[in-house]
Write a structure and sequence with these properties.
Blueprint: E1 4-5, E2 10-12, H1 17-20, H2 30-36, H3 45-48, H4 63-78, E3 82-84, E4 90-97, E5 100-110, H5 111-115, E6 119-120, H6 127-140, E7 142-143, E8 147-151, H7 155-164, E9 171-174, E10 180-186, H8 189-200, E11 205-209, H9 211-223, E12 228-231, E13 234-235, E14 239-246, E15 252-253, E16 255-259, H10 267-275, E17 279-283, E18 294-299, E19 302-307, H11 322-331, E20 346-350, H12 354-363, E21 369-372, H13 378-386, E22 397-398, E23 409-410
Parallel strand pairs: 6-11, 8-14
Antiparallel strand pairs: 1-5, 2-3, 4-5, 4-10, 5-14, 7-23, 8-11, 9-10, 12-13, 15-22, 16-20, 16-21, 17-19, 18-19, 18-21
Length: 411
Amino acid sequence: MPLIRPFSGLRPAAGKAAEVAAPPYDVMTTTEAREMVEGRPWSFLHVSRPEVDLPEGTDPYATAVYAKAAENFTRMRQEAVLVQDQQPGFYVYRLTMGNHVQTGIVAAASVAAYDENRIRKHELTRPKKEDDRVRQIEALKAQTGPVFLVYPSEPEVDGLLERTAKQSPEVDIVAADGVRHELWTLSDPASIDSLVSAFDTMPAIYVADGHHRSAAASRVAVASPSVPGDTGGEAASDYFLSVIFPDNQVQILDYNRLIRDLNGLSREAFLAAVGERFQVDPENDQVKPGGAGEFGMYLGGQWYRLRLDKNKIPNDAVNSLDISLLSHELIDPVLGIVDQRTDERIDFLGGIRGLKELQRRVDTGEMAVAFSLFPTSVEALMAVADAGQVMPPKSTWFEPKLADGLVSHLL
C-alpha cells in the first residue's frame, strides 16, 4: 500500500471558494463561529461547526449536531456549491502569511502507514475529541478537515510543487485573517507517479497538527466495510485527507501558558520560589524569549525574564523541550499543576494571539500569572516522534492554518 495516493476531491464550484473556505473547526468558540457565518450561507462552518444553525446552548456533541452537519453538507452538494472532481489527482496548496510562504501537496495518506508509525505522531489524543471526529466522519461519509503533515524536504518533490505553483492557480483567495490560499490540480499521470514513488522512498512523515483527525480516520477505517473507492483498489477509508508540507517551510509559533492562581502563595513567596530555580530579571517591556531555557513571566503588572541554568537542560528529546523545562521546574513543583491535559487551573494561548493578550488576561484578574515560551522547532518535533515519545500538551502552534472546505475526501 503506497504512503500517499491521488483522490477525486470534493471542492467548491468555480468562483465559490471564497464563500466556502473557513478556518479549522477547532480554532474558535461557538460564539465566534456564529459571528463568522453571519451573511455567509455557504461557509463551511455550517458543516464543521453545525451547532451555529441550532439553538444557542446546544451541546456541540449532541446527536442533532452531527445530523445537522450531514444535512448542510448534502445541501451544499445538491446545490452544486461543492462538486467532486471526475479524475483522481493531487492538489498543490500554497499558504502565504505576510512574508512567510509554504507550498505542499493535498493527498490521501495511508491509514496503514499511520497505524504502523510510518506516519509518526508526537501528541496524545483525548477520547472525547477523538470520538467527536469519528462521529463527524461517519455522519458526513467524508473527511473534511485535513491533517497537517510534514515530510523531510526532498528536492524532487519540492521542485515539482514549486513548478506547479508557477502556473495560474484555480483557487486564489485571501481569508479574513489576511492569509492567502492558492490551489492547483495535479492530475497528469507522470507527476502523480513521480510523487507516489518519491514519498514511498521516505522512511517516515510526521503529523504536525491533526492528531485527533488522523486517529479518528484510523478508527473509521477499521469499522468501515471494504468498499473499493478511487484509490487503486483499496477502500477510500483506508486513506485520510492530508496536506503535506516540507519541513523547511513550516512555521511554528510559541504556545504560551496562563495560570489562574499562585497555588496559595503570595506574590512575594511565589517570586522567591521561582528565584530558587531560575535567574529572575525584571524587564520594562514584554518578554519574548530569545532561545532555549529562557522564559517570559508576567505577574502583577510586571514582566520578568527567567533564565534556567544550561546544566539543568537534559540531553533528551522530550525533557529538553522548553515546555518540559518550565513544567518540571516551575508549573509542577511551584504551582502544583501535574497534568496539564486535565487541570482547569491552566490555559493555553497560541503565539498568533500575541503577548498583549497574555498581559491582558492577567491584568483583568482572570489569570494570576502568564508565561511566554520560545517556539518548539520542527527538528525537535521530528526527534520526539522518531523516538516514539510524545510532547507535553499544547507544545506547538502552527501558522498559518489550513482552510476547511477547499478539498474534502469522500468515503
